[in-house]
Design a protein that fits this description.
CATH superfamily of the largest domain: Cyclophilin-like
Distance between the termini: 14 Å
CATH topology of the largest domain: Cyclophilin
Mean pLDDT: 83
Shape: elongated
Low-confidence stretches: 1-25, 197-201, 324-338
Radius of gyration: 25 Å
Oligomer: single chain
Number of strands: 14
Length: 352
């Protein structure tokens, strides 16, 4: 009886002492921008800057007279300040008509919660009016946080470039610029793809939401089966680029964490789907502990087909503050270690 009480006390200590890590409530939207130099994938911060994301998507999925289309299709990057920003979304250039403005919706309230570091995407706005952003946005080419996080109420970061796709932005940002203010006052620093003797030749782009970016098994929804499909791709050495979700050129466990966190709003180890890692997740894993074939939903958190010590280590690492991405056995806090030992004892003795 004393041993039974001790085990339950240890489990209770785990529940009281560990602060569970929180995940976003649902996945983030992925948008693909097709440029003259290759595709650029953006992860939108749906839950941090919801008004700005909704505003941006209103332009990507613009509704007019019963049709839905992207007003950004054919728009251009009209402003490049080297090592600072690359800006677009406000203009087309149409032969015979010159500069034509992209349609504008109502301004969106400022949401300056994230920092303007390299690789992020933020809304442009009018000077002296923090709540004036409409259709124009810019890529931060460097760490602009000391300036743009505070200027004009702070510039709203609503997205980030995924992985190596920033290489495409860097190529565009390396272009020479041209003063075409005679065409439009905003064209003082427009990037040139080439100068063929005419006024200028610049690039345009197409933007659309990638609805199936995380739907790896093509089921029409994103769930734990997609995690299993990604694990199978990793183990099988797949080179299929659709499995390289974080766009870093390698298909590995980092893509699993990106799928779970950005695609599903979950942490690796959150088997209950309640947005945190806790005791119930550990119980699910322990119930399936052993060499039998298993999927992610049963606790195979590292994708080796079984539920074992390394899967338990992922949960331990998250509970100890090491994060859900840990794949090696950590040095756990003593209290958590004892509690996990209690879970193992429960498993062996059949105590529920």
């Amino acid at each position: 009886m004393r041993q039974r009480v001790s085990v339950l006390a240890l489990i209770g200590a785990l529940a009281v002492s560990v602060s569970a890590a929180q995940a976003a409530p649902g996945g983030n939207t992925i948008v693909r921008m097709e440029t003259d130099f290759g595709p650029v994938h953006l992860e939108l911060f749906d839950h941090i800057t919801p008004l700005t994301v909704q505003n941006f998507l209103s332009y990507v999925n613009f509704e007019w007279d019963g049709d839905v289309f992207s007003v950004y299709d054919g728009a251009l990057f009209h402003r490049l300040i080297h090592d600072f920003v690359l800006q677009g979304g406000g203009f087309y250039f149409i032969d015979g008509h010159g500069a034509v403005e992209v349609p504008k919706l109502d301004p969106v309230p400022n949401e300056p919660y994230l920092s303007n570091v390299r690789g992020t995407v933020a809304m442009a706005k009018l000077g002296g009016d923090p709540d004036s952003a409409t259709n124009q946005f810019f890529f931060n080419l460097g760490d602009n946080s000391e300036n743009l996080d505070f200027q004009n109420g702070g510039f709203t970061v609503f997205a980030r470039v995924i992985g190596n796709d920033m290489d495409v932005i860097d190529v565009i940002a390396s272009l020479d610029t041209f003063n075409a203010s005679n065409v439009h006052p905003a064209f003082t620093d427009i990037p040139l793809i080439e100068d063929d003797g005419s006024l200028f030749v610049t690039g345009s782009w197409v933007v659309k939401v990638v609805e199936d970016y995380f739907d790896l098994n093509e089921s029409g929804s994103v769930n734990f089966d997609d995690v299993d499909a990604l694990f199978a791709a990793i183990i099988g050495g797949s080179m299929d680029p659709r499995f390289d979700l974080n766009r870093d050129g390698v298909i590995d466990i980092d893509d699993v964490d990106f799928l779970l966190n950005s695609g599903m709003g979950k942490l690796r180890g959150d088997l209950t789907g309640d947005g945190r890692i806790g005791l119930r997740d550990a119980f699910i894993l322990m119930e399936n502990f052993g060499p039998q074939s298993a999927g992610y939903a049963q606790g195979d958190l590292i994708g080796d087909g079984t539920v074992g010590d390394l899967d338990l280590a992922v949960i331990q690492a998250a509970l100890d503050g090491g994060g859900p991405a840990a794949t090696s056995v950590p040095e756990p806090a003593s209290l958590t270690l004892l509690a996990m030992g209690g879970l193992a004892l429960l498993r062996r003795r059949g105590v529920r």
